[in-house]
Amino acid sequence: MNFSEEERRERALKIFEILKSEYPNARCLLDYKNPFELLVATILAAQCTDERVNMATVNLFKEYPNPESMAEAEREKLEALIRSTGFYRNKAKSLINVSKALVERYSGKLPETVEELASLPGVGRKTGNVVAGNCFGKPAIIVDTHVKRVALRLGLCRETQPDKIERELKKLILEKDETHFSYVLNFHGRYVCKARKPSCGTCPVKDLCPSSETGGQIL
Ligand code: SF4
After folding, report:
1. How far away, in angstroms, is 206 Cα from ligand 1 center?
2. Which is the closest atom of ligand 1 to the Cα of 210?
């Protein structure tokens, strides 16, 4: 179904209002104390649950609390600490490379813009948006698997590539609300608009959803 941008903007605002009250605690579920920790946790969250990442990072951050220490990490030791998050060999390589880049390019301090963050090795726009939105208050549409699915089912975008979805959603929402909007869509995807069996019958935004009659199938 094709909707005009104006129609989608109006509907997005209504959906945002409803989901804000439905999920008053919508937020990033990864544990972190500073931007570096959130960057690391987000890299580890690829193909892994936030709960599992949070368990692994307790000891990881004790051992490697900053880019300087992680850049010098012994690969095998780092791998052992993050093994439970899956794909640990690639993730260990990414963490060492991104830490080295942070030390070399930014003296160990994280840059604040999505563009700078996303230019770090192994860091894409999603991770850049997570850090920029949560730690630096930048406008950030965070397109993870939940946000992508929910936005498509709600007919807020037609694109399927994350970068394009990000651009489409940015047109619908005020900059100051971008991060919050991302997290209410994320929570809706986690708890109601699930991948396999969306609960359309009890969904609070079903009257605004073009996929409500098809059980989440996008027309
Ligand atoms: S009506 Fe169904 S498909 Fe639409 S947002 Fe709600 S749960 Fe998802």
Report:
1. 6
2. 4
